[in-house]
Amino acid sequence: MNLPESLQTIQQEIALALASVEEEEVEALVDALASAPRIFVTGMGRVGLAARAFAMRLMHLGLQAYWIGDTTTPPLSPGDVLLACSGSGETAPVRVFAELALQRGAVVATITRQPEAAIGRLAHITVGLIAKPSGDLTAQPMTTLFEQSLGLLLDAMVLLLMERLGQTEGTMSDRHFNLER
């Protein structure tokens, strides 16, 4: 396989994965995020990297958003939203955060390729991202396809939130960390 073939394979796999997403599920999540007093985001490994980038964009949108694990993360309160990203839907720390968030009265949301798994069963809002449809194998290693697809889905949600909240690139840029430019 050469580079153009590799890129074409990846693009086709991502397109298939994103085609599995139900618009109504995403709209429910966008509604919850847009109206949340505060948003807490979590995920582990490479899934966590995509989720953490989304938490940053939520802040750029003017929302009170926090990455779980940062030293400046405040306590979660009733009505806040926890977005728990987990491909397997069973990632132990993410599952525990979801359980604790429920106990504290938060709305729990998840994006997962396994909606029937533990975190999906706990969540009020579940977005299924079937990045490895049964019977189809990805050419990419491990959970790469889910991680890539998650990042793109979250970026698409940023566009939806921008429109919903009346934000522009300019208003978001004004909230960007300014000691690096």
Tell me about this structure.
The chain has 181 residues and is an alpha/beta fold. It contains seven helices and five strands; from the N terminus they run H-H-E-H-E-E-H-E-H-E-H-H. The chain has a five-stranded parallel sheet with strand order 2-1-3-4-5, sandwiched between helices. Helix 1 packs across helix 6.
Number of helices: 7
Helix amount: 40-55%
What is the topology, as strand order, of the major beta sheet? 2-1-3-4-5
The counted number of beta strands is 5
Tag the structure with descriptive keywords:
about 180 residues, alpha/beta, 5-stranded parallel β-sheet, 7 helices, 5 strands
Quick summary of this structure?
The chain has 181 residues and is α/β, with parallel strands linked by helices. It is built from 7 helices and 5 strands; from the N terminus they run ααβαββαβαβαα. 50% of the residues lie in helices and 12% in strands.
Topology:
Blueprint: H1 3-19, H2 23-35, E1 39-42, H3 45-60, E2 65-67, E3 81-85, H4 92-103, E4 107-112, H5 118-122, E5 125-128, H6 144-165, H7 169-173
Parallel strand pairs: 1-2, 1-3, 3-4, 4-5
Helix pairs in contact: 1-6, 2-6, 3-6
